[in-house]
Amino acid sequence: MRAFCFLLVFSCMPSPALAEPIDFTRFNLVDLSHNYNANTIYWPTERTGFELESESFGMSDGGYFYSANRFSTPEHGGTHLDAPVHFAEQGWSLDEIPIDRFFGSAIVIDVSAKVNTKRDYRLSVTDVEQFEKVHGRIGAGTMVLMRTDYSRLWTDRSKYLGSDKIGDASDLHFPGFGEAAAQLLIQDRQVKAIGIDTASIDYGQSKDFIVHRIAGKHNILGFENLTDLEQLSPVGSSLIALPMKIGGGSGGPLRIIALVPK
User: Fold this and answer.
1) pTM above the 0.70 mark?
2) 6: how many CB neighbours lie within 10 A of its CB?
């Protein structure tokens, strides 16, 4: 968390207190979020996608320009956050998640070479242990991102999901976290979030969504449909992951950015 502490340090000057300036010149800021638009990818069983309706765009009667839109979206599509209640009845809903869960230090486990030959690849305990041999033990409170480079397929729904069938999620093929690796990261390493640049933290052929269930049981956040993970180093980056605050929500649109030290 040291790389992120500068956001939380305040001056000890007499009242009124002044926050110390944030030196963003020390970081490259990377947006890990896809745009929301008519081409946003949703789970195949969703009945609708993202819709943006213009209510006003032009000069008003008062002589000034005015623009306003109405939008609608399912919770789970595009770059979004899975709240624990998505798969755990007693888990936090989106508005109940403590604010400190939305930021922290990040590590990136790169399996992009392995998924090239195996679309249904699942992150393994061996992958985690090999990462730790090089970079050290994953610390408690870390956000773990699994890099597959599937975000490069975002504009092709069939290639991204492994299927273009609408209303049928039985034939999806894309990588995700494995059950044993998820248990290791969540229960033993005590990470606070896991994320991936595919449509789900569970791999495409999952029928029991066990990784979602493990994460939800332990109030762990899930980030899905991330992009540009190749711009992050394996260690050293920090994340700010702020979802829309939907009361009672099981998930919602996410704007997530990485602060990568220069």
Assistant:
1) yes
2) 16
Rg (CA), the chain: 20
Token pair, residue 214, equals 């493990």
Burial (CB count <10 Å: 0-12, 13-18, 19+), residue 94 = buried
Number of domains composing the chain: 1
Residue 169 lies in a domain: yes
221/191 Cα distance (integer angstroms): 10
- What is the 3-state composition of the chain as percent helix, strand, coil, each rounded to the nearest 5? 25, 30, 50
CA distance 233 to 28: 11
Report d(CA 113, CA 158) in Å as an integer.
20
Beta bridge partners of 1: none
Domain assignment of residue 208, given as a range: 27-49+73-261
Which CATH number do you get for residue 120? 3.50.30.50
Residue 224 is assigned to a structural domain of this protein: yes
For 83-142, the pLDDT digits (tens) are 999 999 999 999 999 999 999 999 999 999 999 999 999 999 999 999 999 999 999 999
Q: How far is CA 260 from CA 23, 25, 31, 89, 238, in A?
A: 13, 11, 11, 36, 7
Residue 254 lies in a domain: yes
